[in-house]
Amino acid sequence: MANGKRAQGGTARISERLRAAGLRPTQQRRLLAELLFQHGHRHVTAELLHLEAKEAGYPVSLATVYNALHQFTDAGLLQQVIVEPSQSYFDTNIDSHQHFYDEDEGRLTDISAAVCVSGLPQPPKGTKVQRVDVVVRIRRS
Amino acid sequence: MANGKRAQGGTARISERLRAAGLRPTQQRRLLAELLFQHGHRHVTAELLHLEAKEAGYPVSLATVYNALHQFTDAGLLQQVIVEPSQSYFDTNIDSHQHFYDEDEGRLTDISAAVCVSGLPQPPKGTKVQRVDVVVRIRRS
DNA sequence: TTCACTGCAAATGATTTGCAAAGCA
DNA sequence: TGCTTTGCAAATCATTTGCAGTGAA
User: Fold this and answer.
1) B109, B137, B141, best to mutate vs chain A, most A CBs in 10 Å
2) Domain B8-138 = CATH 1.10.10.10
3) Residue B41: pLDDT band by 50, 70, 90 thresholds?
4) Rg of chain B, C-alpha, whole Å
5) Quick check: A26 CB within 7 A of strand D?
């Protein structure tokens, strides 16, 4: 259903974006990029994206989904969010931001407010800060 | 809590601590608790603890290590820290605190400074905050 | 004695990889 | 065309589980 019509020029734009990131715009990468980037920011697992591709009538193999997610991440198009020891989430919002994580439902949500972390000490010598992750774990009690 | 006559009567104290947490002080739980709690705060993986037990001349099975770690966590003696999608870390410091995570070496370090997170919005209705995790990812660039 | 706990090995679930076939430049 | 990428299935890796034997109370 998300096929072709939705946003004209979409496919060309997606291809361009992939190419700009140094990735050859193959069919499956285009499809996955479309699912990921055409509808606002998203948080997906490999399994979910795989399912969506299947439902979109264009099945790709799970292995390809994993490969693409990592390639997109390495290319700076995605950010990996680590909240569960057993599953990886990928976030299309690559700006610095924080998350709510619903432990009961396994759902990840962006925190849109400007969160400020103060009082952080200097990192150990010889190292530099790569990223500061803030995860607010919530429960439906 | 870790105060008092720290080193003496270690085994008896460990047994008591386990019992107080509702866990029967079996041989292997005592050993693991000793490795975990007798030498200041620690961050361990199941594999590391398993190795230490073996080196201590008292091998326990990996499955038992996993079971014990989770039982300790459920009993409130440990806290699980999630920084890698592929491996679980357990922290003997159960107070609210933050971590440095060295992505190159896979090493976890407590941040002792008083870190303050401000600007967090209310959690979605129907949920309550369980915990706020802050992980400062560092790299030896 | 009883029942929770342990150990092993097999099961699981997410992720990865090897290699032949297919697609992009 | 040549070199990348895909797809499948088998391989891995950390972790969990089933079940018979062991040990704490």
Assistant:
1) B137
2) yes
3) very high
4) 17
5) yes
